[in-house]
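Students often ask why we bother encoding 3D structure as a string. The short answer is that it lets us treat folding as translation between two languages. Here is a chain of 504 residues written in the first language.
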Amino acid sequence: MNLKAFCQKNKLTLFQAAVSAATAFAVLAVCSKSSFLYAFNDWVDANCFFTVGKSMANGLTLYKDIFEQKGILLYVIHMLSYFISNDSFFGVYIFEVLAAGIFSFIAYRFLLLYNCKKSSFITVPLFTAFVYSSHAFCQGDSAEEFCLPFLLGVMYLTFKAIKKDKPLNAKQLVTIGICAACVLWIKYTILGFYIGAAIIAFIIIIKNNGMVKVLKSVGYVFLGILIITVPVFIYFLMNNAVGDMVEVYFYDNMFLYSSGGNASIISKLAGLLTNTVNGVLKTYKSNLFIPALSCAGLVCGLVVDRKIAVLNYIFIYSFAALFIFGGGRSYDYYGLPFAALSFYGAVFCTVGLERLSPDKRKIMWRVTVPCVIVLSILIPYFLSDNVGFALINREQLPQYKFKKIIDETSGSGASATLLNYGSLDNGFYTVCDIMPNCKYFCNLNIPLDTIMIEQDKYVADKRVDYIVTRGKKPLNFSGYECISSTSYQYKGGTRTYFLYHISR
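And here it is in the second language, the structure alphabet:
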């Protein structure tokens, strides 16, 4: 088949892919602080990820030589981003656009299950704009953001099986395994989506083919998981860091965050359910489109789908909420995965558009589509929490102010050493293009005393040339002097930073 014939045969698919890419590019340009419209993404979480990715690119071993507690695939994304741009988030923005484009494209394919072709070009851009301009999106570059295409993907495949009333085939099962493994090695607490989907998928398989087929299906899913997981284990085996990976990524995340102590099983279960409900309500309160579309999703299941679809939706939702919020912590970005689930409500809205009379649909197509293009930009502009930071001069930022001082006092910032003391990574490693020479390069939101004990040792041993602290008056570091301070109006208020230089 020549190129012309291929394009003719796949005209709709190629058009959907092009619109997905364009929508992702435009929406994230406004919503993500990693984009070219922003001087710098100063979100501490994003800078932690970038510093670790940069460290891996320069030969340090994750968990063993550099400490952070997310999954390795998240850091691989940032390692590749570092090769695109070593002192900015432009590379991250490219990967964000790629992930959002895939997310949007899957949404188009999802709607084709319901024979929504033209109307999908109204629904999907608007839905994408709402998702990435939501409060749960935060500042751009979260682990949850990169999981979105894998979550909507598993929903698409399970609903496809329901619509066609036949079990998932081997290729689809392997794909689900690959998606699950990617989520596992980005942030495993989001895996609840797959447990809920698996229950329904196996019900369909048992109904049609019996238990033998279930075992074969599990094997295919496991094969998909191995495709991603085997290279991960090879990396840690080659670097003698399997023990470090198990301790940091699994043990620390599971048990250092846990609460309840010696409480009874009933009390722990009650706490689990309470945490889950509170987390969901918090997400709903700050992201109103999610509960609105989620309720529409239930209506969609009752009106246009069979009971098994409603069960699929409820199971995925319940297990996702339990895994994400059950531990008790609830940051704003924890709610972002539920944006993928809320797409089922967008399906209901699109089906309604498709049921309009042909004349009304023709008018809708001519009038509404241009409006959708404009709204896809206006929605992020008016709803995104980050727009106020767009086009800020980089010289106003503490990171660039301190970079100038470090370059002047060290001769070359890249050859200097620095410690981000007592707080999450504030972005000075990134802007100054400095490689951390300390395993505990910053403090983290994890109750581990070792971090600050080791950071105090680094200071006592004068292991670094510069120390940066945040939000504290000048500390008395023996052998260091405070050479600069600066304040900055951050998202939650004013933050003050102090720069220390080793005494010569």
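Translate back mentally: The beta strands are 418-420, 466-470, 480-490, 493-502. Keep this in mind for the problem set.
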